[in-house]
Amino acid sequence: DEIPTVVGIFSAFGLVFSVSLFAWICCQRKSSKSNKTPPYKFVHVLKGVDIYPENLNSKKKFGADEKSEAKNKSAMPKNSLQLDLEKRDLNGNFPKTSPKIQSSPDLEKLSPKHFAERKKDSVSPDSLKSITSLSSEDKQDKLGTLFFSLEYNFEKKAFVVNIKEARGLPAMDEQSMTSDPYIKMTILPEKKHKVKTRVLRKTLDPAFDETFTFYGIPYSQIQDLTLHFMILSFDRFSRDDVIGEVLIPLAGTELSEGRLLMDREIVKRNVRKSSGRGELLISLCYQSTTNTLTVVVLKARHLPKSDVSGLSDPYVKVNLYHAKKRISKKKTHVKKCTPNAVFNELFVFDIPCEGLDDISIEFLVLDSDRGSRNEVIGRLTLGSSAEGTGGEHWKEICEYPRRQIAKWHMLCDG
């Protein structure tokens, strides 16, 4: 009788010890998880709501009571850039009675007229003159105006860009006489941060009101940065239409006093000439015994800049055509930030017919862009009907099979 009793006592102690150990492990994991820093560098929030990483684990995110809201309001200085989640309403928005920054109207209440009235900080005399005195002929040539704000939070070490709205955009759809605009923003010169807004359907005056918060950018480096806004119109069936661009060098911009409201005229994007597309070195070899075509993409040089940063992230797409129908496609790896790329990548294509008479091969040099569709830098076509060096190169590989022949080719307009 004593043995079962002893076994039961030891079993009970073992069970209690196991439960205690499991609870301790869970607590440790929870505490370590709460202190873990989120893995992202910026937070993109719609409708002007900022969320900082330190506050993501807070239990009180929205809907604070009126007493705590009043205390926070009285304790906050006028020029403070601290944005606290407890001050939001049930929808996650700030109350309309929030303190003003730099004695300027709230961003939500601003109109294009209010933007134009701030001469010193946001609008140069030339741009102000262009806004207030537009003739009927000038309005036809205008691509619209972009309204946005800049802010730096010293406590969070965060650079905040709010894309407010665009007005007076041209209609890119001739049938509906409207556009589906969105904005792609890049921080130059390194192009590490590429973001874009959502697409707003069928409007020429889109109100985006989207905030992008970038962490880890020291205030001392703000003067060396440049903001590049690309305004585009979404097209479901083809490449998106480029409406225009806005370039904002931040040299001389003072953000220590609070939020800076700005507006700039949208200008036409610089169009590159086809003579300056760069060159591509290609090596071809036709194996008549196996009926295969070996293509080696070797190098590219003198590639033009795809944006205002002066650098591209090029890669090459290789398309094989038989009787004007694409039957195979390949692509190289992306080479970062260089106008002179070295690829050295080999591709082998099976030819579906005897000989190369109905075969052609297309090379597309593109700029890799994480934020939107990749842009074509230049194009090259090799085949029996191709002109210039493309036709000469093709003729040589047909006359000398099993021989690897390399040539430089000028890229034409994409």
TrEMBL record:
State where composition is biased (Polar residues): 94-105
This protein's membrane topology, according to the annotation, is:
Single-pass membrane protein
Coiled-coil features, chain-numbered ranges = none
Q: Does the keyword Calcium apply?
A: yes
SMART domains documented for this protein? C2
The record ties this protein, via PROSITE patterns, to: C2
The segments labelled Disordered in the record are 62-81, 92-131
- Gene3D superfamilies according to UniProt: C2 domain
Q: What domain of life does the UniProt record list for this protein's source?
A: Eukaryota
Q: Which InterPro entries does the record associate with it?
A: C2_dom, C2_domain_sf, Synaptotagmin
The family classification in the record reads: Belongs to the synaptotagmin family.
Q: Which PANTHER family match?
A: SYNAPTOTAGMIN, SYNAPTOTAGMIN-4
Protein's recorded name = SYT4 protein
Q: Where does this protein come from, organism-wise?
A: Pterocles burchelli
